Amino acid sequence: MKKNNMDLIVGGSILASLVILVAGVLWLKETSVSQKQVTYAALFSNVGTLQVGDPVMVNGVSKGSVADILLRDNKVAVILKLDKKITLTDSSSVTIQNIGLMGERGVGINLSAQGTKITPTSNNDTTFLNGNFDTGIAEAMGMLGIVLGEVQTLVSNVSSILENTVGDSAFHSVFVSLVGRLDTITDNVQVLLKKNEPVLNKSFKNINEITEDLKKLLDKNSDNLSSIVQNGDSLSSYALVLASRVESLAASVQNIVDDIGNGEGTVGLLLKDDQFFYDIKKTVNNLDTLVNQVQDDALKLRIKLGFGRKRK
Hints:
It is built from 7 helices and 7 strands, in the order H-E-E-E-E-E-E-E-H-H-H-H-H-H. The protein is of the alpha/beta class. The protein has a domain at 31-133. Strand 3 and strand 4 (75-83) form a beta hairpin.
């Protein structure tokens, strides 16, 4: 009898422990047994250290958890279990966020009343939400390793440069020589400025006087300058009109030349008429013959008149 009572006590203790364990796990995960949940799916390019069971926060309030993580082509599909009362639209943002100092991850959802309502995932139809990924501590630590490697390379390069310059005795001697020459040049410049200080002061004074005289001249002739500027504007306008007229005249001349080239008009017809060319050539030849005959007859007449005179 005592043995049966002991078995009942041990069994009751184990059962109570299991109930307390399950209740504690549900309490830690902030999961309600009576809460009705639906499934949504989101696609991410990277999920980092996100794991199954991580919380899903809706506007900062825990309303679900990550049910599964699957590869889908070159993306990662994350199955989310959310409270049935949550309504998602295609304008809602889904982001994997860092929620702890040790690199813990969670899914953050920001609701939006705009856009088309997204229906929960079913066996026949799956609508994927577009997910974003925020860089967290784990990614920052990975990038820190790359940065440290680059810093090490930079320090090595700087050390090499210092050894080849400041650490080199030849560079040190050249540097000392250059500093000495610079000191000498500085002393010479100071001496030169001191010797020519009166001349420089006089030059600056003359420049000031010239500037004042020029200002007075401009002030006295401001009206004339304004008139010149106005006349320049008028001249520019007249030049534009004249240029327009010249352009029109050039166009007219070009039209005339084109008409002549096409055989139009009196000049064009004359240039295109071959018979007219031959007639002119024949006329010139006849005129040349006539001139030659007239010259011969005149020569004969002068000779005849010369021999027919009587001497006194």
